[in-house]
């Protein structure tokens, strides 16, 4: 058994793996990550053979995760995964490949391994990232935009009167501030994806991941998309399996 840990800017996602299967545990919000919470999360699981970690979030949380892992399992091998210029059949488009967020890199790796087709990968997390991969496994570059929660928070922080709530309103022009912010931010995300897809001259499979993937996928006016919540974790598994 191995342990996979994907540390984003909002939440820590994790999974155990057995015979190539990913068994995801409950995500943990970053503002609830402390030593006690991590021990509670993992004290009941078998000692992993190895741990693979990707982190685009805060460095102090990464240090905490590494420290808890070493407390729980003496001498455990913790592999901190980084973006590469080329690996697992995927070629990173960045001029400085190590600058591509490792979560984006691992999603590319996972999509190429699992679907092996040209794709538009959208990670609907703290940020919304769009990455394109062609039929040869060549990354065609990407885009970074604020995620739904960041957009809402930016509106509240930059204005005197705006506030939002957690309600799922209907996606249409609205007659309250909260509902208007819901519709406006969702429209920004949907519009970004529809824009990118409208510019493509070849067929791409649209694949969404991240905390807001289902919500956004449900409003797209496009050919059916795939929602795959475990892409980054699957990318971590590819790295571990490539190193056995
Ligand atoms: N239960 C939840 N807790 C926190 N965020 C959630 C939850 N459900 C959906 N979300 C949305 O998911 C986003 C975080 O998605 P996630 O993929 O975990 O991001 P990241 O990888 O950046 O940490 C939040 O910005 C929020 O809009
Ligand atoms: C763009 C991101 C902030 C997305 O992070 P997330 O929303 O998954 O927490 C992350 O992939 C990152 O820090 N990237 C480095 C810069 C880049 O990819 O160009
Ligand atoms: K992510």
Automatic annotation (TrEMBL):
Pathway: Cofactor biosynthesis; coenzyme A biosynthesis; CoA from (R)-pantothenate: step 1/5. Keywords: ATP-binding, Coenzyme A biosynthesis, Cytoplasm, Kinase, Metal-binding, Nucleotide-binding, Potassium, Transferase. Gene3D superfamilies: 3.30.420.40. It comes from the Bacteria. GO terms for cellular component: cytoplasm. ATP binds at residues 6-13, 126. Substrate binds at residues 94, 101-104, 177. It catalyses: (R)-pantothenate + ATP = (R)-4'-phosphopantothenate + ADP + H(+). A monovalent cation. Ammonium or potassium. Catalyzes the phosphorylation of pantothenate (Pan), the first step in CoA biosynthesis. This is Type III pantothenate kinase. It comes from Methylobacter tundripaludum.
């Amino acid at each position: 058994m191995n342990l996979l840990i994907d540390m984003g800017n909002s939440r820590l996602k994790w999974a155990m793996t057995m015979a190539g299967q990913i068994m995801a545990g409950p995500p943990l919000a970053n503002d609830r990550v402390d030593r006690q919470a991590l021990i509670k999360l993992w004290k009941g699981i078998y000692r992993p053979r190895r741990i693979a970690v990707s982190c685009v979030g805060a460095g102090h949380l990464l240090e905490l995760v590494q420290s808890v892992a070493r407390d729980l399992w003496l001498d455990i091998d913790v592999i901190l995964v980084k973006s590469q210029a080329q690996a697992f059949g995927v070629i990173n488009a960045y001029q400085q490949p190590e600058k591509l967020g490792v979560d984006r890199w691992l999603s590319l790796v996972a999509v190429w391994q699992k679907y092996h087709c040209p794709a538009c990968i959208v990670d609907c997390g703290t940020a919304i990232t769009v990455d394109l991969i062609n039929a040869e496994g060549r990354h065609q570059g990407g885009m970074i935009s604020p995620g739904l929660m960041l957009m809402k928070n930016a509106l509240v922080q930059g204005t005197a009167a705006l506030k939002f709530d957690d309600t799922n309103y209907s996606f249409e022009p609205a007659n309250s501030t909260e509902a208007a912010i819901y519709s406006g931010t969702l429209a920004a995300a949907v519009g970004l994806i529809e824009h990118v897809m409208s510019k493509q001259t070849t067929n791409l499979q649209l694949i969404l991941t991240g905390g807001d993937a289902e919500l956004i996928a449900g409003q797209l006016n496009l050919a059916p998309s795939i929602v795959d919540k475990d892409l980054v974790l699957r990318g971590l598994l590819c790295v571990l399996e490539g190193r056995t």
